[in-house]
Specification:
Blueprint lengths: L25 H21 L2 H19 L3 H11 L10 H18 L4 H8 L1 H4 L2 H10 L4 H19 L15 H5 L1
Helix pairs in contact: 4-7, 4-8, 7-8
Length: 182
Amino acid sequence: MSLLNQPFKTNNPGLLSCCNPPQMLPFQQQQQQQQQNRQQNVQDELLTGQDKQKKQEVDALLSEAMNNLTFQEREEQQEFLHGVDKDIAEEKDLIDNALHDLDAHLMRIKNGSVYELAETMNAGYVGARAFRIMFLRGNRYDAKASANQMLSFFELKQQLFGNDKLAQDITIDDLDEDEEKR
């Protein structure tokens, strides 16, 4: 079984420390706060008196609602908001069922799409299990959302790289000099 088919779990929080964002220095925090204040001031200037009142009412309602939640409920809402609400146990049956549902959704929506063109060019690339699981994981095993994202992916890939690279991995050699410098 390849690594792409394995869930990533660790009991060692230090293992992911390389992925944690570095702490901001005090002057960076001050600059960020000033930027946020400027953005807020620009937004406030655009609001009419009635809009400002509605904004304050909405802010007060949201604040009150959040304050009425228990600590655990607040944590759950924050985790949900940031997309880390709960782990999904990637069992073989779940993956197989999700792949089957993904195939069914793709069959319904692919007609005449760029996805269908890519499939005719290289069915092995488009139909690869690991490739499809990548979209399922990104959409928390929602087959319909994954199918829609796959179609969007191939449309964007065609716009950026043309039909020649549609059904293959993009490498650094596929980028022109301007894109490599970015």
